[in-house]
Amino acid sequence: MIVTDTAKVAFKNSVFLLSPNELTFLPMTSRHRLEIPGKLPLAMIEALCGDCVGENDIVRFSDLPGRMPTSK
């Protein structure tokens, strides 16, 4: 669920925007991409479900060249 600003979501063959108070469901193991198209910080609520709900089950397939690296 988006709390502030806007999120651009790419999932399957579609790309769509989510605004505050909007949400989407992405099935477990589905490939997707989340981008922040605006200049303001994005605040969102992510709810995980299933047997493994930790951050250690995330698989990164690819990223856009020039994007800032994720901090660890």
Helix content: under 10%
The count of DSSP E runs of length 2 or more, i.e. the number of strands, is 5
Helix vs. strand class: mainly beta
Strand content: 25-35%
Shape: globular
H/E element order: EEEEE
Unreliable residue runs: none
Q: Rounded to an integer, what's the Rg over CA atoms? A: 13 Å
Distance between the termini: 24 Å
Characterization of the model:
The chain has strands at 2-4, 7-11, 14-18, 32-35, 43-44. By secondary structure, it is mainly β. The protein has a domain at 2-46. 1% of the residues are buried. The model has no long low-confidence stretch (mean pLDDT 83).
Tags for this entry?
single chain, 3-stranded antiparallel β-sheet, 72 residues, mainly beta, 0% helix
Brief overview:
By secondary structure, this protein is mainly beta. It has no helices and five strands.
List the helices and strands and how they pair.
Elements: E1 2-4, E2 7-11, E3 14-18, E4 32-35, E5 43-44
Antiparallel strand pairs: 1-5, 2-3, 2-4
